[in-house]
Write a structure and sequence with these properties.
Blueprint (H helix, E strand, L loop, with lengths): L13 E6 L2 E5 L6 H14 L16 E6 L2 E5 L2 E5 L14 H13 L9 E7 L5 E4 L11 E7 L2 E5 L9 E5 L4 E4 L8 E3 L14 E7 L2
Antiparallel strand pairs: 1-2, 2-11, 3-6, 4-5, 6-13, 7-12, 8-11, 8-13, 9-10, 9-12
C-alpha cells in the first residue's frame, strides 16, 4: 500500500480510545479481509454499487450498496431504511455470515456485548471521494453502537462531537481497522476526508467501508 500517512510508524494491532464510548481497534479485521471482500463482491453482484442522491439533489461522491434485512437509502425524499433495493425492486442481499460475526466480535471487544446488526451499508471510495461530517441518526434505537470496518486504501477519519462545529479529531484509518462508537459518543459527527490516490494489494485503487447498524 502507498505510504500516505506514515503507515509504517503506526501499530498494526492495538486498541485506542477515541472518545467516551468510542474505540479504534487497529488491524482487527485484517485476518478476515479476504472473506469480507468476497462478501462485498457477492452483495454487489445482486445489488450493484450506485451513487445515491442527497435530499438536496446532489449525487454523492461515494458509491453505496447494502445488505441485511434493510438498506439505507437517500433521495429527494430524504434518508431512511427500506426493505427493498429501489434499483432492483427486490430485497437487499442477506448479510454474509462473516460480516455479522466480525461486527458482533468487534462490538464486544469495544465493550458492547450482544450487538445484533440487521443492516450493513457498504461504501466504495475512489480517489477524490469523501463523506462530509454527519450523524448516524436514522436508526430507531440509539442504544446500539455503530461498527465501521475499513478495507483497502488508507483514509483520514474525522471524529468530532455532538455539534457539527465541535473540533474533529483526525484519525488515519488503515486496511483492517475497525472503529466502534456508541453510548455517549453514539451521535458524534464524523466523516472521511477526500481519498488520496494509491494502490492496495487487496482492494486496488479504492477504499471499502462496512458500516454495521441496528436499524
Amino acid at each position: 500500500m502507498t505510504d500516505l500517512f506514515g503507515d509504517a510508524d503506526l501499530p498494526q494491532r492495538g486498541r485506542e480510545d477515541l472518545a467516551p464510548g468510542a474505540v479504534l481497534l487497529r488491524g482487527y479485521a485484517g485476518p478476515e479481509a479476504d472473506a469480507l471482500t468476497d462478501g462485498i463482491a457477492a452483495v454487489a453482484a445482486i445489488s450493484p454499487f450506485r451513487h445515491m442522491v442527497t435530499r438536496g439533489g446532489f449525487a454523492m461522491s461515494v458509491a453505496m450498496t447494502n445488505c441485511g434485512s434493510g438498506g439505507w437509502v437517500s433521495d429527494r425524499r430524504g434518508y431512511r431504511y427500506q426493505a427493498l433495493d429501489p434499483e432492483t425492486g427486490a430485497p437487499w442481499p442477506a448479510m454474509p455470515a462473516p460480516f455479522r460475526a466480525l461486527a458482533q466480535d468487534a462490538a464486544a471487544e469495544a465493550g458492547y456485548p450482544g450487538f445484533a446488526p440487521d443492516v450493513c451499508l457498504i461504501n466504495r471510495y475512489q480517489p477524490g471521494a469523501k463523506m462530509a461530517l454527519h450523524q448516524d441518526q436514522d436508526e430507531a434505537d440509539f442504544s446500539q453502537p455503530i461498527v465501521s470496518v475499513s478495507l483497502g486504501l488508507a483514509a483520514i477519519f474525522r471524529f468530532g462531537g455532538l455539534n457539527r462545529s465541535d473540533p474533529a479529531r483526525k484519525v488515519p484509518l488503515l486496511h483492517g481497522d475497525v472503529v466502534v462508537w456508541g453510548g455517549p459518543s453514539r451521535l458524534y459527527f464524523h466523516g472521511i476526508d477526500s481519498l488520496k490516490p494509491g494502490t492496495h494489494p487487496v482492494c486496488g485503487d479504492v477504499r471499502l467501508n462496512l458500516t454495521f447498524r441496528r436499524s
